[in-house]
Each structure stands twice: as C-alpha cells, then as structure tokens.
Specification:
The structure is a single chain. The chain contains 3 helices and 7 strands; from the N terminus they run ββαβββββαα. The strands form 2 sheets. It has a 5-stranded antiparallel β-sheet. A hairpin with a 3-residue loop joins strand 4 and strand 5. The chain is globular and about 50 Å long. The structure holds coenzyme A (COA).
C-alpha cells in the first residue's frame, strides 16, 4: 500500500456556540466539544485511510479556557502516524471571540482510530509520510504515546514498551 502525506488528512471544522450547546455558566459544554472533536478526528482518519473508521481511544483532555456562548470553535485535526490498522490523530482546538477580535486556546488532544473492513474488522492502513518539522516531531513521539495508551488500556505489558523504556534509560 502506498504511503500518504500527513497533509492529506488535514481537517478543519468550525462551529458556532449556540445556547443549546452551553452549560449553566454560559460556556460550551465539554461533552459537546468532545463530540465535535470526535467527528473532526474521524474525518481526518477517513481521509488518510479512505475507509470507515472507529474511535478506539481518546487520551487525556485538559480544557485550558472555556469557550463562550456566541464564540466560534476552531478544530484542526491531522493524522500523526499510522500503525498497522490504527492511526493517531492530533487535534488543536481554540475559540474565537469575533466581537472583540481575539482567539484563545481551548485544548490539544490525541485520538486513536481504527480502520474497518466491510465486516467491521480492523483493516490495514497506508503508512503516513510526515513532511513538515511539526509533522516529523509528532510522528517521532507517536510510538511512545501509543505504548503508554496501550499499557493503560491493559493491551501491552510495560516490559514490552521499548520506546518508553528508552526514554527513562537515556
Ligand atoms: C477498537 C477496536 C476495533 C479494536 O479491535 P480489537 O479486536 O481490539 O482489535 P486489535 O486488538 O487487533 O486492535 C486493532 C488495533 O486497534 C488498536 N487498539 C486497540 N485498543 C486500543 C486502545 N485502547 N487504544 C489505542 N489503540 C487501540 C490496536 O493497537 C491495533 O492497532 P494496530 O493494528 O495499528 O497495531 C475494538 O476494540 C472496538 O470495536 N471497540 C469499540 C469502539 C467503539 O465502539 N468506538 C466508539 C465509541 S462508542
């Protein structure tokens, strides 16, 4: 299978925070934002693999600033690395107050998606080719993050996590 540049998976999603999206403080609900992030990540994974994909896991998400009612939500998603049937997607989220003309950080997150065949079974995906400095940095760190999340999910023994171990033995 031919490799595909990371840029192919680049996805931008914008949403406007409406009253029905907010909590009792007038800010965007975290769950609504995670729903939109899941869709952006799915689109990114599907662009890379050209096949339907399913969320396998979501890493820790910390919200830095609330996104306010009437503000715009910007979500960018891009595949950082493809493994065998799974892909890691990096998301950046920020808010925009268009009235006062400023933007502010919301969060960054890593999602993992698995490509599925018509029987709903994991299917191999093309390798990802990182090109820019940022893409190469994200690609290089992806193995470590994968090992950590598989250990936390009980799907890898810590002893087998060579990339992680190398980090501590340097
Ligand atoms: C994700 C899922 C398809 C994996 O299927 P599986 O039978 O465990 O298949 P495998 O063990 O062969 O794993 C397939 C790939 O998923 C990866 N994977 C499995 N669990 C994972 C996890 N918790 N985090 C990250 N990757 C994971 C594996 O590392 C493997 O990747 P690779 O092929 O690139 O090496 C399966 O667990 C599933 O269907 N989960 C439910 C997903 C879902 O419903 N999502 C929507 C939320 S409601």
């Amino acid at each position: 299978m031919q490799g595909r540049p990371a840029i192919n998976s680049f996805t931008i999603m914008n949403e406007l925070v409406l009253p029905n999206d907010t909590n009792s403080f007038g800010n965007l609900m975290g769950g609504r934002l995670m729903y939109w992030m899941d869709i952006a990540a799915a689109l990114s994974a599907m662009k890379h693999s050209n096949t339907p994909c399913m969320t396998a896991s979501v890493d820790n998400i910390s919200f830095k600033n609330p996104i306010k009612l009437g503000n715009i939500v910007h979500i960018e998603a891009k595949v950082t690395r493809a493994f065998h049937t799974s892909m890691e997607i990096y998301l950046k989220v920020w808010g925009e107050d268009s009235l006062h003309q400023y933007q502010y950080e919301s969060n960054e997150a890593y999602f993992t998606f698995v490509a599925l065949d018509p029987n709903g079974k994991p299917r191999p995906v093309p390798v990802l080719i990182p090109e820019t400095e940022e893409e190469i940095k994200l690609f290089d760190g992806a193995l470590r993050r994968r090992q950590l999340r598989l250990i936390l999910a009980g799907k890898m023994k810590p002893d087998d996590a060579n990339e992680l171990k190398a980090l501590f033995s340097k």
